[in-house]
Write a structure and sequence with these properties.
By secondary structure, the protein is α/β, with parallel strands linked by helices. The chain contains nine helices and eight strands.
Amino acid sequence: MAQTSSIAENLERVRERIAQAAGRAGRRTEEITIVAISKTFPVEAIRAAHEARLRHFGENRVQEFDAKRTKLAGLDATWHFIGHLQSNKVRRAVHLFDRIDSVDSLELARKLDQAAAEEKKRLPVLIEIHLGNETTKSGVAEADLGALAEGFSLLPHLELRGLMAIPPYLDDPEQARPYFTKLRELRDDLSGRLGSALPVLSMGMSHDFEVAIEEGATEVRIGTGLFGKRS
């Protein structure tokens, strides 16, 4: 009960901050989805978050989520894969997850499309952009984004919904603003180029999501802000 109560209280604080940021940007809070980053947290924490009315959860390891999934059967939730997806895990990821938020190459997209065809499902995906010069981060280079996005026209089992990026961690969230602005501009340009709406902008985490919302985020990824620090 203590964990359920603390997660519910944390969520209330996060929702208040979202409302304030949305208000500053002249946006409605309903436009913004919280994706609870439940990676490394136990099933009990996910259930507590679900009881607090969260419905979107992000995991970054196929094997870890595979072990949790049976204990979460029947839960009304949308499961996002948010990590770097290895080729040998594609088929299992497509079976387990509702969305893949980290497509970073045409080769991966083709494998996802084939696996989705086998599952007889249309899979919503996001393209992950590499913003910043961090070698530890994955994502497609800005210069290669157009070619990757255009390749989706030949992949009928994938539904390109938008873009995702994780800027460098900066102590002052305000310093992340140019990265969030850049991602929004890339999305807008790409939407015009493809002639189709790309409604999802996934950007912003526990320490900088308010700035991301002011710059147009439609999905924010909150982990420690909900569940506390990872051990």
